[in-house]
Amino acid sequence: MSGYKDYYKLLGVSRSATEKEIKAAYRKLARQYHPDVNPNDKQAEAKFKDINEAYEVLSDPDKRAAYNRYGDQWQNYQRMREQYGENASGGFDAPFGFGNFAEFIENLLRGSGFGGGGGTPNTPPRDIEQTLNITLEEALNGTTKTLILNTEEPCSKCKGQGALTNTTTVCPDCGGTGRGRLAMINVNIACDRCEGRGTIPAPCDQCKGRGFLPKAKRITVDVPRGVAEGQRLRLVGEGTAGSNGKKGNLYLNIHIITPSIYERQGDDLYYEAEIDYLLAILGGEISVPTPTGEVKMKIPSGTQSGMLFRLAGKGLPKSGSKVGDLMVRTKITIPKKPTEAEKDLLEKIQANR
Ligand SMILES: [Zn+2]
Ligand SMILES: [Zn+2]
């Protein structure tokens, strides 16, 4: 937990000082700050301790090398050395899959490889995708729809960051010490969350730290004539804005609501037409409701039940400005209770066949 001590500075030597120079510097300072020479001098006592600590490290080639490489982490390095031992290739049988101890500790000290990173939250712009229900008529003729989108917009107070830059709070991860800890090897590293500062920007009170606030947005959409089922309309910039202010797009998937009298198969519609048995036998004309209004359709003499007649171009819009067909399926109806007069006539026909 002690702060970083520059042993070279303490002894007043350069980093490239020889063993001899270090020894000479130590001796001179030790004489100067020795407790016998400075009775009851707390400052001198502390200085004397530091000088001895510095000399102990810098006079030992191994410790000095470790100190040069790892600074204040050198003791942890030493501890690891003792714990895991040095292997024949000069590396360590270090845990965590690092081939080489130096690489391991360097990764550790840099805070990489442990999912660190950090940085300010940056929410990208988001697209909104939604279904737009329209009627068959609207699909065929085109329409203008007004819809309410439940979207979000970056919080005005924190500019979408979720935190306030001018107010800080104690970092909950490290309790304000700024230190993270890998308990397994007792190495002190900077706290991931606050990057060693001990404080983090306070969460924004307006958006409760989310960075975004819900917003209902009214938009008007021009639906072109002939839109097909499942077609996607893109409205550039009508999506949710990201924290950088850039806006996503709105995608509307067209769903054409088909009246229940029709059954749809792809772009074609199927309609069941009930045809009186006499009309089916003798032939004639019926009226068929199409998406664009009633049309007359010829029924040839001898029409059977379940026959299909095609009304071309009366179905659903297809992509590429084409339109599907309306298929009319016949269902011949027979009176459940024929009148006496009807029966008489039919019996005459029967007798003459
Ligand atoms: Zn922290
Ligand atoms: Zn906010």
Highlighted features:
353 residues; alpha+beta; Helix Hairpins; HSP40/DNAj peptide-binding domain; 4 domains; 4-stranded mixed beta sheet; 3-stranded mixed beta sheet; 9 helices; binds zinc ion
What does this structure look like?
With 353 residues, the protein is of the alpha+beta class. It folds into 4 domains: 7-110, DnaJ domain (Helix Hairpins), CATH 1.10.287; 125-157 and 206-257, Sandwich (HSP40/DNAj peptide-binding domain), CATH 2.60.260; 163-203, no CATH class; 262-352, HSP40/DNAj peptide-binding domain (Sandwich). It has helices spanning 7-11, 19-33, 42-58, 61-70, 74-84, 101-110, 136-141, 277-282, 340-352, and strands at 128-135, 143-154, 163-170, 179-182, 187-190, 199-203, 212-223, 232-235, 250-257, 262-265, 268-276, 284-290, 293-299, 308-311, 326-333. Strands 10-11-15-14 form a 4-stranded mixed β-sheet. Strands 1-9-8 form a 3-stranded mixed β-sheet. A hairpin with a 2-residue loop joins strand 12 (284-290) and strand 13. The longest helix is centred in the N-terminal third of the chain and has 17 residues, at 42-58. The radius of gyration is 43 Å and the shape is rod-shaped. 19% of the residues are buried. The model is unreliable at 84-120 (pLDDT under 50). The structure holds zinc ion (ZN) (2 copies). One zinc ion binds at residues 171, 173-174, 178, 191, 193-194, 198.
